[in-house]
Amino acid sequence: MERFIENLIYSSRWLLAPIYLGLSLGLLALSVKFFQELIHLLPNILTVTENDLVLLLLSLIDMTLVGGLLVMVMFAGYENFVSKLDIDENKEKLAWLGTIDSGSLKNKVAAAIVAISSIHLLRVFMDAENVANDKLMWYVIIHLTFVLSAFVMGYLDNVSQKAKKH
After folding, report:
1. How far is CA 90 from CA 10, 42, 79, 118, 121, in A?
2. Would you tell me the crossing angle of helices 50-81 and 17-41 to the nearest 10 degrees?
3. How far apart are CA 136 and CA 156, in angstroms?
4. Is the dihedral of CA 46, 48, 50, 56 positive or negative?
5. What pLDDT digit, counting tens, does each position of 71-114 carry?
6. Contact (CB, 8 A) for 60 and 38
7. Residue 70 lies in a domain
8. How many independent structural domains does the chain possess?
9. Mean pLDDT per 10-residue run, the chain (166 residues)?
């Protein structure tokens, strides 16, 4: 009975596979929005203000970072929790595949969230005259919370890595 339960629990990891596949649909939706923004920009490229152009470009960078985050979570999460990716020998393989453990993935996700938050905060600051001071304060507090969380997670990971070596 114990062996059956353990095998069932171990096999249940495959329930994550459709979730990772769902993230790829999220990546497709993000790609559609990215190009939708570009298509909206092109007819107005000569009349758009520099500030509006920078805000749009920051928005595109933000979407790009989220897309990279999705890919990293999909691939590393699948490899860590479901199964190794079986890539054909004649196909290009990403150099980092198989090298990110769950702790590293957690830290990379935290760093990506800080980067995304930074870009969002920069977008808010570029339009600061139209944002209430209390909202600006909350944006900064939330961003600093992300920064502190990422720092603490990295620090704790570093401490646990050192503890494993000793």
Report:
1. 31, 38, 20, 39, 43
2. 170
3. 30
4. negative
5. 989 998 999 889 988 877 777 877 777 788 878 888 888 988 99
6. yes
7. yes
8. 1
9. 94 94 96 95 91 88 92 90 82 78 84 90 86 90 94 87 77
Take residue 63 and report the two structure tokens written for it: 């979407």
The answer to whether residue 90 is domain-embedded is no
Quote the domain boundaries for residue 137: 2-84+96-165
> From CA 117, how far away is CA 111, in angstroms rounded?
10
pTM assigned to the model: 0.78
Place of tokens 């920064």: 147
Q: What is the pLDDT of residue 127?
A: 80
Quote the CA–CA distance of 163 and 139 in Å, as a whole number.
36
| DSSP letter assigned to residue 128 | G
| CB proximity list for 117: less than 8 A, separation 6 or greater | 142, 143, 146, 147
> What six digits make up the tokens of 24?
């790829």
Tokens 């595109």 correspond to 60
